[in-house]
Specification:
alpha/beta, about 40% helix, about 20% strand, Rossmann fold
Length: about 375
């Protein structure tokens, strides 16, 4: 079905299904028997992507072509309860979708890795969504939510107020992920120290010890990540530093080299030229959709050290298929929201909205993570 901004009778709209993650969200919505609209700006491209979802013929779904405007998206979202947005870079495209979801009275979820978008979304839309009892939850994704689950497991031990978070995965970023990686080079990156945002140096790099193996790895602040934003003003937590990346050192070295190149060659350009140059670099690194994840190969690791004046805790969650984790987390969040209100309305993380133990159970039930390894010293 190809329509232009027509209101839906389906409870969930997945916007941006022409990409890798949008397809996986639809796949897991099918697992939950949730009817959905697969929407995007190019009907044929969305249809081609959806046709490759295993068992799609048994899913209650429609394919909709829609313009990326507040008016068209508001009309499309009207009648839906949840919007899952995968159209990034979110700092560029997110406002339109958030405004349309708010207009339509729908909860908003996205998969962002852009700290600047999260901060902007909280300021611009948080109070308005809360006023309508709606959830505004950017960053519902493996690279943020699974680590947040590990952090909250550590915080079940009272008296810990500092979080040191590491997120790594094995694989290659999708085209959309590469666009995000290079888009965040234009932004300031923050960690949390004594409940105040502090700016990371633009050239910050970490050589990290990886739990469960003898080799070390390379990690970056990765745009600051979602974690400092989620734990800001959490009375349990004062300080949060997070680093992330992929296990493959050569990929991380490419990102580091690009950061240096941006500082030296692209940053002096006018803003519009910066964006075009970064998009070109991102496309040259990854222009195609990567193959479907193999759980034997595409592993993930979330490690959180939590500390306090007289206590320590360390939680490690080993998993696989980080993009599948993202698709599942989005689908479960939508599945939950069409049945009951979130635990917190307005701007809230997945753990704040649905509960970290509940989300862990979802990931465990689909075989995507092991039981967390928790060590506590008090």
């Amino acid at each position: 079905m190809s329509t232009e901004g027509t209101a839906t009778t389906k409870p969930v709209v997945v916007y941006g299904v022409s990409g890798y993650t949008g397809r996986l969200i639809c796949e897991y919505l099918r697992e939950y028997n949730v009817p959905f609209i697969a929407a995007g700006r190019d009907h044929d491209r969305v249809a081609e992507v959806v046709s490759r979802i295993p068992g799609i013929e048994t899913a209650d779904h429609e394919i909709v072509e829609v313009e990326h405007t507040v008016e068209a998206l508001t009309e499309l979202f009207s009648g839906a309860q949840v919007v899952c947005n995968t159209v990034g870079p979110f700092i560029k495209f997110g406002d339109v979708v958030a405004e349309a979801a708010l207009n339509a009275g729908a909860h908003y979820l996205d998969t962002t890795g852009e700290q600047d978008w999260m901060l902007a979304a909280k300021e611009r839309w948080g109070a308005a969504f809360a006023g309508k009892g709606l959830l505004l939850s950017p960053g519902v994704a493996q690279m943020y939510t699974t680590g947040e689950i590990a952090a909250n497991i550590c915080l079940e031990t009272p008296g810990l107020d500092t979080l040191d978070i590491l997120v790594l995965w094995k694989g290659f970023p999708t085209y959309a992920s590469m666009q995000t990686i290079f888009t965040i080079l234009k932004a300031d990156w923050f960690y949390l120290e004594e409940n105040q945002y502090r700016k990371w140096p633009s050239d910050q790099v970490f050589e990290v010890s990886i739990p469960g193996q003898h080799e070390t790895g390379i990690a970056l602040p990765w745009g600051g990540t979602a974690h400092p934003v989620w734990f800001k003003d959490d009375p349990r937590v004062a300080t949060v530093k997070a680093a992330g990346g992929v296990f493959d050192r050569s990929v991380m070295q490419t990102v580091i080299a690009t950061t240096t190149m941006f500082t030296e060659q692209i940053k002096p350009l006018p803003p519009e030229e910066q964006e075009a140059a970064l998009a070109q670099v991102a496309g040259s690194v990854q222009a195609n959709m990567p193959p479907r994840e193999n759980p034997r190969i595409n592993t993930s690791l979330d490690s959180v050290y939590a500390s306090g004046p007289l206590g320590r805790a360390h939680c490690v969650i080993h998993g696989n298929s980080n993009y599948k984790q993202t698709g599942l987390l989005q689908a479960y969040a939508a599945y939950s929201l069409i049945q009951q209100a979130p635990r917190r309305a307005g701007f809230a993380s997945a753990c704040q909205a649905f509960g970290h133990r509940e989300l862990l159970g979802v990931l465990r039930s689909f075989g995507l993570v092991l039981e967390p390894v928790l060590t506590v010293n008090r």
